Amino acid sequence: MNKKTKTPLFHVAKRAALPWYKAWAIRGAALLLALVLCGVITSLVTGEDPIAVYGAIWKGSFGTPRKFWVLLQNIAMLLCVSLAVTPAFRMRCWNLGAEGQALIGGLACAACMILLPGKLPNWAIILCMIVASLLAGAVWAGIPAFFKARYNTNETLFTLMMNYVATQLVAFFCVVWESPKGSGTIGIINPNTQLGWLPQFPSQKYLLNVLIVAVLCVLVYIYLNYSKHGYEIAVVGESERTARYVGIKVEKVIIRTMLLSGAICGLAGLLLVGSTNHTLTPTIVDGRGFTAVMVSWLAKFNPIWMILTSFLLVFLGRGAGEIATKFGLNRSFGDILTGVILFCIIGSEFFINYEIKFTRGAGKED
Amino acid sequence: MKKLFSLLLALTMIFALAAVSAPGAAAAEPVKAGFIFLHDENSTYDLNFINAAKEACEKMGVEYLFKTGIPEGQECADAAEELIDEGCNFIFADSFGHEPFLIQVAKEYPDVQFCHATGTQAHTVGLANYHNGFASIYEGRFLGGVAAGLKLNEMIEAGTITPEQAKVGYIGAFPYAEVKSGYTSFFLGVRHVCPSATMEVTFTNSWYDPTLEKEGATKLIANGCVLISEHADSMGAPTECEANGIPFVFYNGSAADACPNTFIIASRIDWAPYMEHAMTCVANGEAIEADWTGTLASGSVKMTDINDKAAAAGTAEKLAEVEAKLVSGELKVFDTATWTVKGETLTEYLADVDDMGDFVPETNVIADGYFHESEYRSAPYFDIDIDGITNIDA
């Protein structure tokens, strides 16, 4: 009789599937809430006019034609790495090594650009760059895949650690190939001869990357949704046992998919080094290997939706940089705003999948 | 003779170029400055530039934009082009690795002036709108060395150490000219007042690594070094020195707050004079030099306040005396009479001044009894291993 029973104020329950318009209404509300929150935080912390801050975010991507092209280039590169991790993710194989796989692809590409001139004609150098980059990325993903398929090691940790190995290797070769001596950086490779530079569209240095990634996006979409391989990936992802039961060779699928994943990362490295930067630094991938995880998840592993999610992340990042420049605020302030927006968007998925039921008469005690 | 001829030819061409471009450049226009920084104000290196840029622009009433956190890659070129889109006609970048990307953009925008700190290629790349700047920081390091030498003398007089035990330690970032020039001038400053001093050097192979810098200090102290100095950007070594009661001379700014008992003095480059000079040239439509070297005399090399708690008595007076001699030219930091290589005094030395990527030294830089540092180009090129300094990593 003396026992007090407490009823919780609310509890969380799984929702039945929401109609699409309700789900999008929740997402829209989340985005709105995020923008309002950002405005409030900006006004409180800096005293800047929040509308001007939104304007700056917009201008960061669409202010000038050049900024628009940089936006497209950044979307293309982020999307490329995201497309790379997606086949593995669909298989529930968490490839967190995209950063290293792209980096090692870039290293292979730079090696060809530095070592081959004088020995081969330019077209052969470019061919070697393509083959070497894709192969290097594939090998970097293939090693953890082999161990997972053969010994069931944890691919999350393994791929993650391969990133550090790749970073250190690149740092090492930056010293080996440094120019000028003692600088610890490679500088622009073949600045005068432009040997090994991928061809550029006149006056549009980023168009090639954008086109390649656009085609790749469609190809990956078709591969995942309309090919036998894509179906096998989906089955392995759902249940390895089912896959085995229906006669799919799970080990083979794991290794094949990871090789593909790594090769596409290698392509990202090739495009970064051979097409736009013409140099190699340990930070050239710029964390895209990790941002790609978010891009892929937010789009629910759908390559076409990933165009939108990578746009969102790049748009916010560019806006953050613009805020830093325009208001003389620290770059971290832009990152805070990006964090707030992402928190709201990811949080909205929770409300789409679950509902909160308030308990009637909560708090009353006998 | 052939060399002299080609030099004359080159000069003629430069003047011809300048003459051709003069009508366009002569149109004086309001300056809008765009600055590109490798990190943000959390790095002592970039903070030093950021403060100078604000000071110079505010003093001149120049509108300015900052791009912070710009890596040494295509991002640097993009950042420069975005600043130009915003109407900047003067671009300044602060990191060595920005140079090739800045040159690339400079070729495309002949009407915009580009200045790059610490770079080496302006005098060979042949662009009228691309320039390098540095300061004769070796003068500041020499003064820091004098303060350190006075401290050693005080220890010797107090009987704490014998003259033979007067060994200083130095933590360098990379074993290349900028760092070697720095520690050699520091050491020559030490020996200027304490002739029995020797020095040990260790390298971290990183510009910023608190752990490695701390370990470097630990290693040097264990080897018997009684005073430490450094050329790297973290507080790793100073905090280790403070913990062990080892006096030290710092770089980039004062560490008196963090290390009140052991910090003696620090030297730093004040970039504001260079920025003001370059922006004044842009405003007046005048050409900027390919290489500009600020000096102690011109206010580009600065010393922090002396920390009396750690410095020897009479340091301020002695520094004032040496500084006056450096400014007047009576005293040369790299006077060949004060140092030897394998027991020999050098009378000539070829340095790789023209950085063509070939690493081939081509310019004699010793004349009139001293090494002409930062005179043939602004970035340091003194890379000689002199007697009395031991590299303990070798």
Provide keyphrases for this structure:
heterodimer, A: 366 residues, mainly alpha, two-stranded antiparallel sheet, globular, disordered C terminus, B: 394 residues, alpha/beta, Rossmann fold, 7-stranded mixed sheet, 11 helices, 17 strands
Question: Layout of helices and strands, plus pairs?
Answer:
The complex is a heterodimer of chains A (366) and B (394).
Chain A: E1 10-14, H1 20-46, H2 50-62, H3 65-90, H4 98-115, H5 122-151, H6 155-176, H7 207-226, H8 228-238, H9 240-245, H10 250-277, H11 288-298, H12 303-327, H13 331-353, E2 354-358
Antiparallel strand pairs in A: 1-2
Helix pairs in contact in A: 1-2, 1-13, 2-3, 2-12, 3-7, 3-8, 3-10, 3-11, 3-12, 4-5, 4-6, 4-10, 4-11, 5-6, 5-10, 7-8, 8-10, 11-12, 12-13
Chain B: H1 2-26, E1 32-36, H2 44-60, E2 63-67, H3 74-85, E3 90-93, H4 99-108, E4 113-117, H5 122-125, E5 130-135, H6 137-158, E6 167-172, H7 177-193, E7 198-203, H8 210-222, E8 227-231, H9 236-244, E9 248-251, E10 263-269, H10 272-284, E11 291-294, E12 301-303, H11 315-328, E13 350-351, E14 363-364, E15 366-367, E16 370-371, E17 389-391
Parallel strand pairs in B: 1-2, 1-3, 3-4, 4-5, 5-11, 6-7, 6-8, 7-17, 8-9, 9-10
Antiparallel strand pairs in B: 10-12, 13-14, 15-16
Helix pairs in contact in B: 2-10, 3-4, 6-7, 6-11, 8-9
